[in-house]
Each structure stands twice: as structure tokens, then as C-alpha cells.
């Protein structure tokens, strides 16, 4: 048996490739049949799209992509590679989710802080919570704030003041 060529168990046989090529040809033929029916219904644009999609499997067979896929589908090394790619994708998505939850990178936090500062109007009044560093000049149309009593009602009075300021 010196002259015979022995194939490995992981190598796809000619029959596997022939089955794949037959399936691709059948899918293409069915797609072309649907395209003919679509043309009969006078939907030419849709028929052109269906024809394009139905020619893809035959084109893949003719270029050898189907043979390559058949080789890949029965290769343990290829499946291990897909496993490694899946693990890398899982790590990437997990780290992105953690990054989003923690507030992002320093650059993103800085951009958000700048955007928040720019969102406040330049003529906005001073914050109602806490004492400022110095006297804040208020427009004459706004009455001076009431002195705080230190109770729980202060929180709601601040909210009321904000809502009144915006006309709500």
C-alpha cells in the first residue's frame, strides 16, 4: 500500500464538499425562482435584490470559499481558534461594561465634567446649598433667600426655589 494516499480523520472528504456545493446550488436556484415570481408581480427592484442574494452562494462555491469553509468546519484547530476569538470578545465586552459602570476613562470623565459646567448658564444664580466664599450679587428682581432654620423643610424649600426659578 505504498502508492495510496491516506487522509487524516480531521480532513473533510470530497463528499462533504460536494454536499455543500449542492446545497448552495439549490439555494441559488430557489432564490432565482422567487426572483422570477417577483418580476412577474412587477416588483423589479425587489427582484433585482433577490437575484443578487441568490447568486451569492454560487459565487462562493466558484471562488472556493465553500471548500475553505468545509476545511475549517471539520478542523479542531479552527474550532479552537473560534473559541479563542470568543474568549477575547467576552473579555472585551466585559471590560467595556465595567468601564461604563465605573464612569469611563479619565478623558471621558473630564469631558463629562466640562460638558456639565458648560450646561449651566453663565448668569445662573449661586447654588442654594451651603455658604459661598463671598457675597454673591443677586439681581434686584429676586428677593433675598430666607435664613435657614436647620430642619428637614430646608431640603424642600431649596427644591421649591429651583422650581419657582424655572417657572414650574
Q: Summarize this, please?
A:
The chain has six helices and no strands. The mean pLDDT is 76.
Q: Can you walk me through this structure?
A:
With about 170 residues, this protein is mostly helical. It has 6 helices and no strands. The longest helix is centred in the N-terminal third of the chain and has 27 residues. It starts with 13 loop residues before the first helix and ends with a helix. The model has no long low-confidence stretch (mean pLDDT about 75).
Main beta-sheet strand count, sense and barrel state: none
Share in β-strands:
under 5%
What is the approximate shape?
elongated
Structural category is mainly alpha
Task: Give the arrangement of secondary structure elements.
Elements: H1 14-40, H2 44-63, H3 65-73, H4 76-102, H5 106-119, H6 153-165
Helix pairs in contact: 1-2
Please give a handful of descriptors for the protein shown.
mainly alpha; 168 residues; 6 helices; elongated
